[in-house]
Amino acid sequence: MGFGIVLPVLPDIVMKLGHVDLPEATRIGGWLGVVYAAVQFLTGPLMGNLGDRFGRRPVLLGALAGFAIDYLLMGFAPSLGWLFLGRALAGLFGASFGPAGAALADMSTPDERARYFGMMGAAFGIGFVVGPAVGGLLGEFGPRAPFHAAAALAALNFVIGLFLFPETLKRENRRPFTLARANPAGAWRALGKLHGVIPLSIAAFFWQVATMIYPVTWAYFAIAAFGWTPGLIGASLAMVGILMAISQMLFVGPVVKRLGERGSVALGIAGAIAQFLCYMVIQDGRLVFIVMLLQPIQSLVFPAMNGLMSRKVPPDAQGELQGFNGSVAAIAAIFAPAIFSPALAFFTGPSAPFRFVGIGFAIATAFALIALVILLLGGRAPDQMPPSTPR
Q1: 189 and 357 in contact (C-beta within 8 Å)?
Q2: Where are the domains of the chain?
Q3: What's the sign of the alpha-carbon dihedral 77, 63, 246, 256?
Q4: What is the rounded distance in angstroms from the CA atom of residue 137 to the CA atom of residue 147?
Q5: Which among 62, 82, 60 is positioned nearest to 72, based on CA atoms?
Q6: Cβ-proximal residues to 14 (8 Å cutoff; 6+ apart), any chain
Q7: CA dist 55 to 17, 44, 97, 327, Å?
Q8: Does residue 142 come out as left (phi exceeding 0), alpha (psi in the -120 to 50 range) or beta?
Q9: Over its length of 391 residues, how does the chain's per-residue pLDDT go in tens digits?
Q10: Which residue of 125, 132, 263, 364 could cross-link 237, Cys pair, CB 3.0 to 4.6 Å?
Q11: What is residue 186's DSSP assignment?
């Protein structure tokens, strides 16, 4: 929810601190995303392995405290340099996504995990209902106000977690911490010994690149295509969040039960491709809210893919898997802004041979198609956890 609060005002604060126009702010926004993702890529396996050694609770509480400080730093940032520093720290604390996913795996059986990951997705959806709506309203009072609100929210979450969140990892399922595995290369080597994990990770990478079109360019796309204000941008993101929350709570469980995890992922990617193609050609901003009705189909991918991959990993490596998945997502988040932001900036700028605001969604369609092909052709190892982690 914290990032959802600040997302509608990112273009405004970048233009204000950098004294630049919208196309240049789009490029800078892309680099902010690269910095966030680069730090998350490097620290994702570290956070996951720390969670496997010391438990999920201390890692998650530390990250929440860090987020509170970080949002304050960005809220008072006097220059773009401070904003970049803030996004780097956000990447570090955001790497706690791995231990959070591992905590869900700790509390569920393999057959329940897709539903539990769906509940996690629903929480994100609710955050994107309330977050952008609040951020859009607060943005009318200035681009810094949403950052202060996000800091207060993170501090509140820390206090709640301190008293109410229990440790989920049993001591018998913990393993020693080693630096050799607490980095992307080490995690790749360890998980690569588990047959079927790497092909699914590659498919997940291309999928993550495709879906990065939203956080990287949505606000800039909406301004360039429809002239939307922060309030309208927040409303559109809120609708996405509502649909995500509803679908994750009511739609994921029955579909996964009927189609299986792999079939559900394939259906979700196909639905996303249809949605991307619509956004690519849409010219009337009112139609955006109709196209968003396809969102529940796309929302199948995250929980079903995580459930599918977690079946192939033993209990003492769930944190490592989720941390590695975070690094895969971070690589995508490094790669995506380098493609989407310059493409949108060029095709909406004065030097473009023709104006094509939907260029990013055309690129996203190509990446989603690659993910679908890899999913259907590879990674078909038996869906069962091995008895132990390769050492």
Answers
A1: no
A2: 2-166+183-377
A3: positive
A4: 13
A5: 82
A6: 20, 25, 28, 29, 32, 80, 83
A7: 40, 15, 14, 20
A8: left
A9: 667 788 778 888 889 888 888 878 878 887 887 888 888 888 888 888 788 888 888 889 999 999 999 999 998 999 999 999 999 999 888 888 778 878 877 887 777 777 677 777 667 667 766 777 788 788 888 888 889 989 999 999 999 999 988 888 888 777 777 776 667 777 666 666 666 778 888 999 999 999 989 878 888 899 889 998 878 887 887 788 788 778 877 888 889 889 988 899 999 999 999 999 999 999 898 999 999 999 889 888 988 888 888 777 777 666 667 777 777 877 887 788 889 988 998 898 888 898 999 999 999 999 999 999 999 887 555 544 444 443 3
A10: 132
A11: H
CA contacts within 13 A on the Cβ side of 287: 10
Burial string for 258-272 (b: 16+ CB within 10 Å, else e) reads eebbbebbbbbbbbb
CA separation for the pair 361, 366 (Å, rounded) = 9
Residue type (1 letter), 276: F
Contacts of 76 (CB under 8 A, 6+ apart): 82, 144
CATH architecture label of 2-166+183-377: Up-down Bundle (1.20)
Three-state SS for 43? Answer: helix
Report residue 324 as tokens. Answer: 């590695």
Q: Which amino acid is at 381?
A: A
* Entry pTM: 0.70
DSSP conformation class of 165: P
253 C-beta neighbours (distance < 10 Å), count: 17
Sequence-distant (≥ 6) Cβ neighbours of residue 275 within 8 angstroms? 291, 292, 294, 295, 297, 298
Alpha helices in the chain (DSSP H): 2-6, 10-18, 22-54, 56-75, 80-94, 97-106, 113-139, 145-164, 184-192, 197-211, 213-226, 230-250, 252-281, 285-291, 295-298, 301-310, 318-347, 359-377
Residue with tokens 């126009």: 21
